[in-house]
Amino acid sequence: xxxxIIEGELRHQTGKGAARRMRARRRVPAxxxxxxxxxxxxxxxxxxxxxxxxxxxxxxxxxxxxxxxDADATGPDKVEKTAILKEVQSDVVRGNxxxxxxxxxxxxxxxxxxxxxxxxxxxxxxxxxxIMQHMIWELEVHALPxxxxxxxxxxxxxxxxxxxxxxxxxxxxxxxxxxxGEDEVIILVSAPEVVVEEEAEAEDxxxxxxxxxxxxxxxxxxxxx
Length: 225
Fold this sequence. Notes:
This protein has 225 residues and is an alpha+beta fold. It has 3 domains: 2-105, CATH 2.40.240.10; 112-190, CATH 2.170.120.20; 197-225. It has 3 helices and 13 strands, in the order E-H-E-E-H-E-E-E-E-E-E-E-E-E-E-H. The chain has helices at 16-24, 46-55, 197-218; strands spanning 2-10, 27-34, 37-45, 61-69, 78-90, 97-104, 111-120, 131-134, 138-143, 152-155, 164-166, 177-178, 185-190.
């Protein structure tokens, strides 16, 4: 599991006024919650967090939060928490991050999270005209934090038309339990649809002629040879 460090501030004040002051400082509100601890309200530097997001902060990334207190907070100057990223909310118009949820974890307790599925060797696949369909982009796994892979790599370089890779085909460490069903298809290579327009038009014309002849007979006419 890849590890990154993110710095933040413990928040003491909440409400609209505090939110406006945070936005003026280009900071993002966030929370850290866990099964055995109270929710901690924090803020993050918007630009630094977006940089970390671009580098990758999926469920296979272990995050060390180093939190300093703001001017109005009491208690220790710094608090450290181990967490994983659970949810990021973004503005639908501007696209900037507006809220972040972290889940505090213990390295001694197994967790359930999602890790991305990454395809390898797509450019080396046989040139057979097959259409590769990527059906599953994330896998839900359950394991100790340090055993969770950063990502699941799938080699597709030898796949031909009609081939597929299912969850049960993956070679994952024994300590990692996959909650996604074994029969779920991750990758499928299908044949392209071929439409022969001339043949289709000929069949349509033939059907039209036959239909007209049947209508003529039904109306009392006679077929001619």
